[in-house]
Amino acid sequence: MSTAVTGQSRNKTRSIVVWTIVALVGAAGWTMLALSRGEEVSAAWMVAAAAGSYAIGYRFYSKFIAYKVLKADKTRATPAERLDNGIDFQPTDRRVLFGHHFAAISGAGPLVGPVLAAQMGYLPGTIWIIAGVIFAGAVQDMVVLFFSTRRNGRSLGQMAREEIGPLGGAAALLAVFAIMIILLAVLALVVVNALAESPWGTFSIGMTIPIALFMGFYLRVIRPGRIAEVSLIGVALLLLALVAGRWVAKSSWAEAFTLSKESLVIWLVVYAFIASVLPVWMLLAPRDYLSTFMKLGTIALLFIGVVVAAPMLKMDAVTDFATQGTGPVFAGSLFPFVFITIACGALSGFHSLISSGTTPKMVEKETQVRMIGYGSMLLESSVAIMAMIAACVLDPGLYFGMNSAPVVLGETVQDWVGTIQSWGFTITEDQMVAYAKSVEEASLWGRTGGAPTFAIGVAEIFSTVTSDGLKAFWYHFAIMFEALFILTALDAGTRVGRFMLQDTLGNVYKPLKRVSWWPGLIVSSAIVTGLWGYFLWVGVRDPLGGINQLFPLFGISNQLLGAVALTVCTTLLIKSGRLKWAWVTGVPLVWVATVTLTASWQKVFSDDPRVGFFAQGDKAQAAIDSGTLEGKALTDAETIVTNTTVDGVLSALFAILVVVVIADAARVCIKSVRNPASVVSHEEPYTESKYIAPAQLFATKEEKAELQAAGLGSGGGRIDGAGDRSEVGS
Amino acid sequence: MTAVRTAASRIWWYVRELTGETAYERYVAHVRKDHPDAPVQSRREFERERTDRQAADPRQGFRCC
């Protein structure tokens, strides 16, 4: 008895010491980041601040939410256990599911947002990424996952309809569709800006199509289901294509792969349309294996690179653009626009679709939502930190030369250099040429969209670890990595959009609901690709610069979906009698609603033509009316009027949708607080679990004993023993 | 040497699980255990049905931003 007590208190002391050290490391990182003025800071401090904060957030806050707020119960059977059908419902090893979930939530978003937000300095973005994920983003992912798990894996839309009502449900569905379209347009724009006039990049990305087709054929015909081996072959071919891209760029073929932005748009739209009507096994599935491998591999390399190289951050902690709101990358002041620009990595509404889709049907134990929901999102957030580091290790002059909208910089190269120097950054024409040459690109001026900047940052970091000669290779490696999963997202996203469209239109005309009905398939695919293709085309032709117009719209829509998800979570907490804990999702909801609505308000009503869409349109209209414009200037002005009207209307629509959802939910919440007896629970009733599995990555001493007593490996399994699949037990 | 081999086999196990290569093995185990009399699909048929299901409801394999 007494030895047990001393053992326990020794453990407790050790835990206090360990967590004090973690807190000190994090605090030291924050201090160095915040207090540096004028001198360069090592990126290692940013890593320390992030890692320390994540560890503390995970250890304390996520534990509090899991056990105090949600009351995750390890004796309660999950849908995976109860409904196990060997297909979509099946208990999946927590470590594997963590990988699945992370691969599904992470994409190009966290690589783009932080790069753009770096114009305000590294500090505002970093604070939001880290604080946002701990208190909002990871909370959303985990709570949605938990509630969906309690409801047999219901989707967010279904939960909104059941728990809030048909109006809120319909608004949520419409929001998801609109957001999907904007998302696809923005992602495609990032690819177009990265591949334009770049034969190396275009060739290697183009080669992913035949590689994926080969893999698809291999899996369908030659050796069905041997995914791991064909993925390894695919990755090898991909690296070969990357190396070959350089030969092509230097050969007489280069011209054929040097495409303008306009022709890339056409290629992309045509590609996405064809890809989305082809059978899944041919292109989508194999491409997905490739991009998952590349994604996980590159992120791992990036972590190693940043830690080993520990580069210096050359960007200021806070630039003047943060306070003045006159930034050349995107206009608007720090609040609300940093919080809009960085969506993925801090809080991403899109994740709620994954957390309420595939993952909840595979969770072994309710207690694992902490590791899978909260943990995966922390990892995604650290990817955003890496992107922030990649942007901030560059010379600020280079950063602004690449990311500023052309209209801001001026007409000629001399103007561009002059404008950047007038902001207090040093850059010369020769330096820009040298930078472009070092990565074997034609030019780096105005390479907006985030991907080229991220890729140069990555090349900078990796080449200090490997050798300078590999810089161009690493640059194109990073471009390929980003473009690869954007192309997968275009295909998959078009399919999801089509599915939603077919499902909705099918209520009007029955045959449309059948996914195998060809005319319906082709028409709805064409509508979806046409919609995002329109925004992509507009973005590429936009005289004001596409990404700075579209990205805020994407951020607003993504955060809006986050607001919808947090509304559903808060409603569920209140309806299940947990009013006193409703702040856990309620406070992030208030925050994100304030941010989105302020941003939408400014985008619609601001008098500043740089910020407000309608003010921008009015300015262009006034110029047209004055009759002084002719030729290109006139068509540009007319384009601006059309674009700003569409964008302004969309911003207003998004804001109205979120207000409708929140108001409808508030009605439900008030009703359930006033009359708790009226609440109907849609939760599945309690069933006792016959499954044993640890809650965290590593099993505790008690869990190990429990597993051993049941004769199970570290992966866990059913108590009767038949579910044990863990060949590599520890 | 055994440490290297254990590490390699763990990584291989993880890769196979993550890619879904083991889905068929799990399906066979599932049928054998819960429906001993039911016929077991061949791997070819099983994998075909798996991708066809994804085509029918693309939300299953959806990837985020």
Any idea what the shape of chain A is?
Answer: globular
User: What is the overall silhouette of chain B?
Assistant: flat
Q: Which structural class do the helices and strands of chain A define?
A: mainly alpha
> Which blocks of ≥5 consecutive residues of chain B have pLDDT under 50?
none
Domain tally of chain B: 1
Q: Helix amount of chain B, in percent?
A: 55-70%
Topology of helices and strands:
The complex is a heterodimer of chains A (730) and B (65).
Chain A: H1 2-35, E1 41-42, H2 43-69, H3 79-82, H4 94-105, H5 109-117, H6 122-150, H7 156-163, H8 166-195, H9 199-222, H10 227-250, H11 261-277, H12 284-309, E2 312-313, H13 320-324, H14 334-341, H15 351-355, H16 369-392, H17 396-403, H18 406-409, H19 413-422, H20 429-438, H21 451-465, H22 471-505, H23 518-541, H24 546-575, H25 583-605, H26 613-626, H27 632-674, E3 691-692, H28 701-709, E4 717-718
Antiparallel strand pairs in A: 1-2, 3-4
Helix pairs in contact in A: 1-2, 2-6, 2-16, 4-16, 5-16, 6-16, 6-24, 6-25, 7-8, 7-24, 8-11, 8-22, 8-23, 8-24, 8-27, 9-10, 9-12, 9-22, 10-12, 10-22, 11-22, 11-23, 12-21, 12-22, 14-24, 14-25, 16-21, 21-22, 22-23, 23-24, 24-25, 24-27, 25-27, 26-27
Chain B: H1 2-19, H2 23-34, H3 43-56
Describe this structure in words.
Chain B: Residues 36-65 are annotated as: Disordered. Chain B: InterPro entries: Sel_put (IPR007423). Chain B: Residues 36-56 have a biased composition (Basic and acidic residues). The complex is a heterodimer of chains A (730) and B (65). Chain A is 70% helix and 1% strand. Chain A is mainly α and 730 residues long. Chain A has one domain: Amino acid/polyamine transporter I, CATH 1.20.1740.10. The radius of gyration of chain A is 26 Å and the shape is globular. The model of chain A is unreliable at 721-730 (pLDDT under 50). Chain B has one domain. Chain B has three helices and no strands. Chain B is mostly helical and 65 residues long. The mean pLDDT of chain B is 88. The chains are: A mainly alpha (730), B mainly alpha (65). Chains A and B meet through α4, α10, α12, α15 and α22 of A and α1, α2 and α3 of B.
